[in-house]
Amino acid sequence: MTAADELKLIVTAVGAPDDLITLLAVAAPLARACGGTVVPLCITEERERPNWLRVPDELQDVVEEPVLLHHTNAAKGILSYLRHTSPDLLLLEWSGEISRGRYLLGRTLDPILQYAPCNVAVLRTGENPADFRERMASVKRILVPSGGGPNASLALHIARHLSDGAETTPLRVASTSLGPTAVLAQWDMLKASLGDDLTDERLRPRVVQAGDVVEGILEQAADGHELVLIGATQESLVDRLIFGNLPQTLASRLDLPLIIVRRRDPVASGVLRQARWRVLNLMTQLTEDERIRVYRQVRRNARTSNDFYVMMMGATGIATLGLMLNSSAVIIGAMLVAPLMAALLGIGMGIVQGDSRLVRMALRTTVLGIVVAIAVSMTIGLLVPERKLTSEMLGRCSPTILDLAIALISGAAAAYASAHKDVSGALTGTAIAVALVPPLATFGLLAVGGELQLASGALLLFLTNLIAIVSAVALVLLWVGFRPNTSELRNAKTFRSGIAGSLAVLCAITVLLGVLTARSYRAARFDATVELVLKSQVSAMGAGAELEAWQVSPQPDGTLSIKAQIASSEEITPEQASALQQSLAHNLGRSVAVSLQVLPTTHLDALP
């Protein structure tokens, strides 16, 4: 036990008679065992003291007179009291219901759990107060699952002091895929986490194997245990965002009373966590009715239909002709017609909701749209006899990290616009900002023309836009209040797999685009240096000399062959060509072979 685990002052936040009964059933025996005291705290808007807010006679040895504070916001009132009194533990009661909207545990509990400057224990009983009080008075077996996290020791400390005669089982669940040696290693880790507590005869440490941690805990809890205590886990930001980590999963599936314990954070960790919480609450959250409306709309638009195929073929036809005509206005028109953005919104929504059927349906729509776009562009490319590369095509063959940034911002804007009907008209603008059909049309045209390297660049641009949009959509939908039902294992698996897969592909594309961007930057800087040196040296050859064109080609031996075309009214000497070559070699730091093509020119002034 560390100083942070000493429980001399315990505050119980009560708001109703049932809260007082259940929380004191835990706090009173804990305070007796630790030599501490309990302070019931009630935040109310009323000026009169509730009749039920009084300490039972049998608990007055450890429970002080309840504190009544007047405040319009219960969470702010509790936090204010905690900051002034600095208790060792705050004990709260939770109904066990996980919100799917703005709040994860509730309007009061959420900010308290984020900002409480002390250890916190959240109690979920699952039974009426009288039965729970009777249970705590005669509890014999307590289960404390442990994964070795920072909160596990506090959970075990509380469990050992809840009842003098109770048997406490520190539990570690090992995977069924582990061999005997690995299981023994789990035993060693469990014993190391217990330390000197191993000498306590009431401890019955246990390591069990199970296919799933939750299933292993549930199986052991059903084996005669009467109470479960578990430390809050340090899981990923996404898991904490949806409150779908191990303790909350247990809360939704465990029949026994459960106490979730979180140790007071160090100052630095607390500041980071609170900053993260403030960021998550910057976005206006949707109500349940709004989320239902948005979900239905996104699901409906993600389906394939005759209209989808017609609009997809029309958009691709317009984009293909616009690329061939080198007309940006025509290409913009194709972006407005294309229906592919709705399918990507469907993929993001399906991931966030853990809805595997929606993900499959939206993916099917996306794949069919891609096939249609490529087929139409290739057909037009074959039918048009004269094909040439245009700047609009070439501009979609070299994606950079900037294209990824545009796609991320556009995806976020599309998700926000779809979630708020007041700004739904902005979807048109996002469709223009991030091109989906033009890169596919470019790919089809270039593939038919045999320009496979350029075609691969256009395909990479489309994949960049697709992954970035889906990732941004998922993030924004989470931010505005959409949550998967993590009590359903299938939904939780779809959510985590979708998020992990999207992030993995996004990271891979980011790295690839970063390499390509760096390569493009070096090439542009190299070209700028060559042109600057050429212009400087040519201008020194005489007033009548001008640089017309130049070309660089690397040779097998590493030498750079630079061919330049110069228009000059004066003769260019070999000495001047040699000086030009030496200057290029010095500035580029490489061996250079220069070949000049001089075009004699004559300057004539027209007669007045």
Description:
This protein has 608 residues and is of the alpha/beta class. The strands form two sheets. Strands 3-2-1-4-5-10-9-6-7-8 form a ten-stranded mixed sheet, with helices on both faces. Strands 11-12-13 form a three-stranded mixed sheet, with helices on one face. Helices cover 55% and strands 14% of the residues. The protein has four domains: 1-125, HUPs (Rossmann fold); 138-261, HUPs (Rossmann fold); 288-513; 540-600, K homology (KH) domain (GMP Synthetase, Chain A, domain 3), CATH 3.30.300. Helix 21 (489-539) runs antiparallel to helix 22 (574-588). The radius of gyration is 35 Å and the shape is elongated. The longest helix is centred in the C-terminal third of the chain and has 51 residues, at 489-539.
Topology, element by element:
Elements: E1 9-13, H1 17-34, E2 37-44, E3 67-70, H2 74-85, E4 89-93, H3 109-115, E5 119-124, H4 129-137, E6 141-145, H5 152-162, E7 167-175, H6 180-194, E8 206-210, H7 213-221, E9 227-231, H8 237-242, H9 246-253, E10 258-262, H10 267-280, H11 288-301, H12 306-325, H13 328-337, H14 340-353, H15 356-383, H16 391-394, H17 401-419, H18 426-433, H19 437-448, H20 452-479, H21 489-539, E11 545-554, E12 560-568, H22 574-588, E13 592-600
